[in-house]
Automatic annotation (TrEMBL):
<dbReference type="GO" id="GO:0006780">
    <property type="term" value="P:uroporphyrinogen III biosynthetic process"/>
</dbReference>
<dbReference type="Pfam" id="PF02602">
    <property type="entry name" value="HEM4"/>
</dbReference>
<dbReference type="GO" id="GO:0005829">
    <property type="term" value="C:cytosol"/>
</dbReference>
<dbReference type="InterPro" id="IPR039793">
    <property type="entry name" value="UROS/Hem4"/>
</dbReference>
<feature type="domain" description="Tetrapyrrole biosynthesis uroporphyrinogen III synthase">
    <location>
        <begin position="17"/>
        <end position="234"/>
    </location>
</feature>
<dbReference type="InterPro" id="IPR036108">
    <property type="entry name" value="4pyrrol_syn_uPrphyn_synt_sf"/>
</dbReference>
<dbReference type="GO" id="GO:0004852">
    <property type="term" value="F:uroporphyrinogen-III synthase activity"/>
</dbReference>
<dbReference type="GO" id="GO:0006782">
    <property type="term" value="P:protoporphyrinogen IX biosynthetic process"/>
</dbReference>
<dbReference type="InterPro" id="IPR003754">
    <property type="entry name" value="4pyrrol_synth_uPrphyn_synth"/>
</dbReference>
<protein>
    <submittedName>
        <fullName>Tetrapyrrole biosynthesis, uroporphyrinogen III synthase</fullName>
    </submittedName>
</protein>
């Protein structure tokens, strides 16, 4: 039996990419097209802020894995003031939360994790807060900061990373050919860069990682056949296989 092709709009992670393993176990062939590249920014400013201590802050907002990487870069070879460990953390996405746990610095009992920014906003506006630090990227959506501003919550925003198209994106897209069963988008900006490439994609069903990505695709009139509610390889593989079994 010929394996159906699934294109993942992400870079392959090492020799044993977990998404590839999960999909191959389900009988699919996996194609990788790296879409996004990132660069950290404002590291000297963030490092100086961390060295000074929280300075009236009551919590930190992390909405992406890149923000956690920026914190890790800024604190490299630094003795972080102990007051930061007591900060309330407000996080979007289980993968982001997992990376924060790997830092082994912040207290997990002071952590709130939401699946999407709107849910985190609901939680934040229902609580009393001092000033919050939002470690953001250049492509961050307005939804959360606007919601917090309307609720009168003081937010100090620092841009700590920028997202750009991967240098091999156009080449990778141009090499995609029929038959292609599925394409999988991992982020709103990933979809945007694929569309901006101008490359006409082969016809395929669409899967999205997480509700935020799915919402973004649907706002652009893209039919999303499958949503992996969690960014986990087996959740995606099971969702695609279940959809095909039912259709």
């Amino acid at each position: 039996m010929n394996r159906k092709n699934v294109c993942l709009f992400k870079a392959r992670t090492g020799c044993n990419d977990e998404y590839e393993t999960a999909l191959r176990e389900r009988g699919y062939n996996v194609i990788f097209v790296p879409v996004l590249d990132h660069e950290v920014q404002s590291i000297p400013e963030l490092r100086a802020m961390i060295e000074r201590g929280p300075d009236g802050l009551s919590g930190i907002i992390f909405t992406s894995q890149r923000a956690v990487e920026a914190w890790r870069t800024a604190t490299q070879d630094m003795r972080v003031p102990s007051a930061w460990a007591k900060m309330e953390l407000y996080i979007v996405g289980p993968k982001t939360a997992s990376l924060i746990r790997e830092l082994a610095y912040f207290a997990e009992s002071h952590t709130t994790v939401a699946n999407r920014a709107s849910e985190l906003g609901d939680h934040l506006v229902s609580q009393q807060h001092g000033r919050l630090l939002f470690l953001a990227g250049d492509k961050r959506r307005d939804e959360l900061p606007v919601r917090l501003a309307k609720a009168g919550i003081d937010v100090q925003e620092l841009r700590v990373y920028a997202t750009c198209a991967h240098p091999q994106l156009v080449t990778g897209l141009a090499q995609l050919v029929e038959p292609l069963a599925w394409v999988v988008y991992y982020s709103p900006s990933g979809y945007d860069y694929v569309m901006q490439s101008g490359i006409q994609l082969p016809s395929a069903q669409v899967a999205a990682i997480g509700p935020t990505t799915a919402d973004h695709l649907q706002r652009h009139q893209v039919v999303v056949h499958v949503v992996a509610e969690q960014p986990k390889p087996r959740v995606l593989a099971d969702a695609i296989a279940d959809y095909e079994n039912k259709n």
